[in-house]
Amino acid sequence: MKEDGSTINLPMMRRKAKAYLSLTDHYTALCLPYSNQAFVMYVLLPHEGVTTGQLVDSLTPGSFSNMRSMLEQYEVEISIPRFTTIMNIDLTNGLKNLGIRKAFEDAASFPYITTHALKINQVRQAAKIEVDEQGTKTSAATVEYMVASNSEIPVEFHADRPFVYIIQEQTSGTVLFIGEYMGETDIGDNYVYASNTCFIQRNSIW
Q: Does residue 93 surpass a pLDDT of 50?
């Protein structure tokens, strides 16, 4: 179901697996660690009546940390749309807002690269994220699902409406990507929402 109440048919991936869940006032979070243990993906499914925009606006470092502290492992019936997200954004203004300005000016100096006059014209970030039955893949890592036993009654996590997903580096806690899956653009058998943003663009406190 879309946020305007209309419905569309989506190709869904379904798995029963051991996974971590956390329940907050605005959303239910599903945690999927990547196989290299360096990164983790969080799928934040808004409660009924909460939009993805409201969810993102409500996120703070404190609330996000609190959500992570409440994660508990369950046997989960996972149902998430199969999708491929491609992100390509211009980071130039974001870097300048962080104080990295001289590198973009005519007076820039890169003595360890060249003695000639050189400046940065533009910085872009590109990434590709895929979610299917085999797990979640980014350009550099893959999520692997742990197979669940049959001894527990599974908890359901059905992402049948727009949701937010976040990729975080484990050691530093740095949030690398945040995306809103809206299920509106059709590419082959996958539905893609390509206009994804970084936290720094949506919420400056991150």
A: yes
